[in-house]
Design a protein that fits this description.
alpha/beta; Rossmann fold; six-stranded mixed sheet; three-stranded antiparallel sheet; 8 helices; binds adenosine-5'-diphosphate; binds magnesium ion; transport
Length: 255
């Protein structure tokens, strides 16, 4: 969905981790743009730098060099410094993680409402939004339950609602189906697709699986901290095979 309205522009991003005895270059000159309403998959093997990238996009970690321009954010230099980092995250980002990260002592509806409670939004508005989201993911009957009474797929649906409740410009999802079986993964990916299409929700999703990447509009292939290529999905049954083929080619070519 390239209408040239950019949500995010990433320029020459690098990240070097300094370990006791050696440096790890986790990101090397990463450049890309995310367009409004785009569903972007970042695909790479374990250790290729995907989580590092997502953590930096969400201002949970600082890059070594390079820039992120986020539409609507005036002071781009400061997004990695507190208290701006927290504000940036609350205003702009909804996170979905592999392991759900729900608060186990709170009910489903309380977990979903939490980001708005933290923003001091009035109760009636919160209630309305929670109801709407519970309907969207078909969990209305489960609203008074606690996360541990739910299946993994249901817990991830709660996490998606929590990410959506502030209507953030961007959803960041790190291996959101990594703990789920095939059928459950499919239903979670259908929800991502649905919110992308119906709400024009911009999404960056990280995965190592071609099948998962095939739900996106566009795939960036990551290898050893670099973007090696990209693939524009055709939205037909050939996508998965083409993604798999390209990924294999990249892994087999010299660095
Ligand atoms: N906090 C850290 N300190 C040192 N090295 C790290 C840290 N986090 C990640 N790395 C290293 O950076 C590289 C990329 O990791 P990561 O972004 O987690 O990859 P992925 O999510 O694709 O599996 C790996 O070599 C990993 O060991
Ligand atoms: Mg990771």
């Amino acid at each position: 969905m390239n209408n040239n309205q950019t949500v995010l522009s990433v320029k020459k991003l690098t990240k070097v981790y300094q370990r006791a005895d050696k440096k790890v270059e986790a990101l090397k000159d990463v450049d890309f743009q995310l367009f409004k309403g785009e569903f972007l998959a970042i695909m790479g093997t374990s250790g290729s730098g995907k989580s590092t990238l997502l953590n930096i996009l969400g201002a949970m970690d600082e890059p070594t060099s390079g820039e992120i321009d986020f539409s609507g954010v005036v002071d781009h230099q400061n997004i990695f410094k507190e208290p701006y980092a927290t504000t940036y995250r609350r205003e702009n980002i909804g996170f979905v993680f592999q392991s759900f990260h729900l608060l186990k002592d709170l009910t489903v509806e309380e977990n979903i409402a939490m980001p708005l409670i933290l923003k001091n939004v009035d109760f009636a508005t919160i209630e309305e939004k929670v109801n709407e989201l519970l309907e969207l993911v078909q969990l209305t009957k489960w609203r008074k339950h606690r996360p541990l009474e739910l299946s993994g797929g249901q817990q991830q649906r709660v996490a998606i609602c929590r990410a959506l409740i502030t209507s953030p410009p961007l959803i960041l999802a790190d291996e959101p189906t990594g703990n789920l079986d095939f059928n459950t993964s499919h239903s979670i990916l259908d929800i991502f697709k649905e919110i992308n299409k119906s709400m024009r929700q911009s999404i960056v999703l990280v995965t190592h699986e071609p099948y998962v990447a095939s739900f996106a509009d566009r795939v960036l292939f990551f290898h050893d901290g670099r973007i090696k290529n990209e693939y524009q999905c055709r939205e037909d049954s050939s996508d998965m095979e083409r993604i798999m083929h390209e990924f294999k080619r990249i892994l087999e070519s010299p660095l």
